[in-house]
């Protein structure tokens, strides 16, 4: 057996903690047999969490409850017995919280067979794809981005660089972003990508570019060609880019940009609308015959109630309303309002409470811009999985559609833009889009009697346990970070990576990471904190 374990420490004095650390240190290293323990910096990476805390409220001061439900929470006696017997002992009698006894038993790394033969292993998973047993410690410093990454701003791939939300050259990045948007709206994809890459480099550059240092610094940066260099020099010299200033006043650019803020309208459709004479969103409302209220503001078409001959109201149709361009126009003022962080958290809490009524044991992570540290978000993205590693895939199959219908019946979801189910893994697919269950919908919080609740965009992503952490990684980074993550996997590691899984290309071997950090490890990348994955403007 070649097990590795991970630990979490709470409610212990320094002497007790030192003893546990010594026990783990005595088992660290790589051996051909015997026990191997690994101390983790993050509880989310652990298989086993060591704690003397016996009450939920106290444990939640140290550990998120969703994570706790996925782990074996045991007393220090479990570690002592495990080291003494040189294999993971059963966790049940060492469960620290009676409330989590069953979860502790289920998550216990008690298998004493080679990992490839253990019944808890995912079917057909080669030994090399499976993570070690882990022990994590509360009180151990949080995962941090290394100084090597912070100094690696000249790296070729965005997934090797630290990109903060606001960088020292943010005004320059914003100005270049206008040029990038213009190329994209005009269908010049190659040019738009060039600006994307240049902006990504600027976002990672750790110092302000000035007239004094630009000649030395600019020529050393990758992805910045001569044309874009000239734009950057213009900005450093004058504080603006003349072309960007012109585009801010240009009718066509402003029209196309406004049109593409509406769901269902891409750059090509926007150009078509402009070619037939539309110039403003009000023009679009008239073109799509959007109803208006007494004040001339767009409004949703109200569904007329239907009654039976004896006066009973007929329930509204079971078919989920689609978010058409017409409907998106009617909702455009609400959907354009940024979502503050506390409202994101409130939406998440309500969704998970409703989900728990359908299927207990689910876990979740808010991803997207919220996880990258944005004070406000344009939409809310939630990755959902199940704490049962062995059976979670079956438990959440079809759960996405059931949840969306439940939210719709309760008036929390009003429209759906995309709803998909699981498909079996196919290594020949160029995209894994349908190997996750997803619902892209419009959500509205229940009325609280204090303020008007606005319609919000909500994306729900359901992932089987083996794909949970790849989904978290794939939905956290900004667009260019994720693009380069896929490119790195393909070019440098011979792998195919996206939010739905990791595959080795030459033999289609699947990898099942057990933590976000392990996704980076399998890709041969150093850890980058989510708040430093803001590669786009």
From TrEMBL:
The keyword Isomerase does not apply. Its main location: nucleus. It is found in: Nucleus. It catalyses: DNA(n) + a 2'-deoxyribonucleoside 5'-triphosphate = DNA(n+1) + diphosphate. Keywords: DNA damage, DNA repair, DNA replication, DNA synthesis, DNA-directed DNA polymerase, Nucleotidyltransferase, Nucleus, Transferase. GO terms for biological process: double-strand break repair via nonhomologous end joining. GO terms for cellular component: nucleus. Coiled coil: none annotated. Pfam families: DNA_pol_B_palm, DNA_pol_B_thumb, DNA_pol_lambd_f, HHH_8. InterPro entries: DNA-dir_DNA_pol_X (IPR002054), DNA_pol_B_palm_palm (IPR028207), DNA_pol_lambd_fingers_domain (IPR018944), DNA_pol_lamdba_lyase_dom_sf (IPR027421), DNA_Pol_thumb_sf (IPR037160), DNA_pol_X (IPR022312), DNA_pol_X_beta-like (IPR002008), HHH_MUS81 (IPR010996). Residues 167-534 form the DNA-directed DNA polymerase X domain. GO terms for molecular function: DNA binding; DNA-directed DNA polymerase activity; metal ion binding. Its EC number is 2.7.7.7. DNA polymerase that functions in several pathways of DNA repair. Involved in base excision repair (BER) responsible for repair of lesions that give rise to abasic (AP) sites in DNA. Also contributes to DNA double-strand break repair by non-homologous end joining and homologous recombination. Has both template-dependent and template-independent (terminal transferase) DNA polymerase activities. Has also a 5'-deoxyribose-5-phosphate lyase (dRP lyase) activity. This is DNA polymerase.
